[in-house]
Design goal:
The chain is α/β, with parallel strands linked by helices. 26% of the residues lie in helices and 26% in strands. It is built from 11 helices and 18 strands. The strands form 3 sheets. Strands 3, 5, 6, 9, 10, 17 and 18 form a 7-stranded mixed β-sheet that branches. The chain has a 6-stranded parallel β-sheet with strand order 13-12-11-14-15-16, sandwiched between helices. Helix 4 crosses helix 5. The longest helix has 13 residues. The chain is globular and about 65 Å long. The protein binds nicotinamide-adenine-dinucleotide and zinc ion (2 copies). The site of one zinc ion (ZN) has 9 residues, from helix 2.
């Protein structure tokens, strides 16, 4: 029997989100219904609401979540009812040209649930990043459920998007390693996860750049060795000064704007790596001298989801968290109820929080 539960939708471009009734079908072949325990508010949810991703309104928002599998459809073997899982937006196919070449982390045919969740009048919803988790229960492809050891859902759910994206941008895409220098531009949830990742793998110079002193203070908690407020000083000059006059080995751009991308481009050392993990809007452009692109060597990369493979990376990061080596709790600024998503967007916009996390028992 389909179930009707409460969920948060963005009905039209720019309009405030609404808490409304959502109809969840029983899981079909290859699908699972998950009782969501917690879901973080990511900047990408706000991009969806503002029409910055696409126009497939109404969206069922939320995509950084953990919960418990309630029911599975025919043929599902990877998870079972009762499993504690983190939801992922990279359920790999195993068959596309990238998977066949042994690169499932850049699978070109990831899958989501085939059936649609709907409003009570039958209107089909577009789930954010193929998940949709500001909702008491959600329907996903079974491959979107990554089983992990039981841990605080509000903390480990963040691995489902922003924290994994940031950590992976530094460690997987950027390839940061022991003794390297790294600068991270933009110290929200994503940027701080890049900083934490760099600290865990042993980078020795970790420069946090932001325009907000509160964010820079927070970045130190995740392992930043230096902070730069780019409102007050030239970020490129300062990063060079802090790296012996050369620039950082890796610069992670975690804002998604042309001016910060340019800073990243010029703030890296010769043969260094730029990683764009911030999501730009379709109208944004950068202009760079080709001779500089050529002459500086190195690589200009973008990072989708931190080039993660959920089955490999989520359990490993949950282990580091449980061992006290990766402070996921520090990303959780507040726990809120499912009716508080719009207020959380305002706090995110004002720079007051790293992550507001919806917990299904009503927050605190
Ligand atoms: N690539 C991916 O897979 C992926 C996944 C999740 C999020 N994202 C994207 O990453 C970006 C960051 O997400 P978030 O959740 O951390 O957002 P956030 O709003 O929490 O953080 C953004 C930070 O950038 C800072 N900032 C803004 N303008 C700046 C500037 N000019 N210079 C320096 N800092 C500046 C803000 O003060 C804030 O601290 C967003 O664009 C989001 O859509 C990408
Ligand atoms: Zn594939
Ligand atoms: Zn996200």
């Amino acid at each position: 029997m389909p179930q009707t539960v409460k969920g948060v939708i963005a009905r039209s471009k720019g309009a405030a989100v609404e808490l409304t009734d959502i109809v969840i079908p029983d899981p079909g072949p290859g699908e699972a219904v998950v009782a969501v325990e917690a879901c973080g508010v990511c900047h990408t949810d706000l991009h969806y609401r503002e029409g910055g991703i696409n126009d497939d309104f109404p969206f069922l928002l939320g995509h950084e979540a953990a919960g418990v599998v309630e029911a599975i459809g025919e043929g599902v073997t990877e998870v079972a009812p009762g499993d504690f899982v983190i939801l992922n937006w990279r359920a790999v196919c195993g068959q596309c040209r990238s998977c066949r070449r042994g690169r499932p982390e850049i699978c070109f045919a990831t899958h989501n649930a085939r059936q649609k969740m709907t409003l009570t009048d039958g209107t089909e919803l577009s789930p954010a990043l193929g998940i949709g988790a500001f909702v008491e229960k959600t329907l996903v492809a079974a491959g979107q459920c990554t089983k992990v050891d039981r841990a605080d859902a509000a903390a480990v759910g963040l691995l489902g998007c922003g924290v994994m994206a940031g950590f992976g941008a530094a460690v997987n895409t950027g390839g940061v390693k022991r003794g390297d220098s790294i600068a991270v531009i933009g110290c929200g949830g994503v940027g701080n996860a890049a900083i934490a990742g760099a600290a865990i793998v042993g980078a020795t110079t970790i420069i946090a750049v932001d325009v907000d002193d509160r964010k820079l203070e927070g970045a130190q908690r995740f392992g930043a060795t230096h902070t730069v407020n780019s409102r007050d000083v030239d970020a490129v000059e300062r990063i060079r000064e802090l790296t012996g006059g050369h620039g950082a080995d890796v610069v992670v751009e975690a804002v998604g704007r042309p001016e910060t991308y340019e800073q990243a481009f010029y703030a890296r050392d010769l043969a260094g790596t730029v990683v764009l993990v911030g999501v730009p809007t379709p109208d944004q452009q950068v202009t760079l001298p080709m001779i500089e692109i050529f002459g500086r060597g190195g690589s200009l990369k973008s990072s989708w989801y931190g080039d993660c493979l959920p089955s490999r990376d989520f359990p490993m990061l949950v282990n580091l968290y449980r061992q006290g080596r990766f402070d996921l709790d520090a990303f959780v600024s507040e726990k809120i109820g499912i009716g508080d998503v719009e207020a959380a967007f305002a706090k995110m916009h004002a720079g007051e929080v790293l992550r507001s996390v919806v917990v299904m028992d009503g927050g605190q």
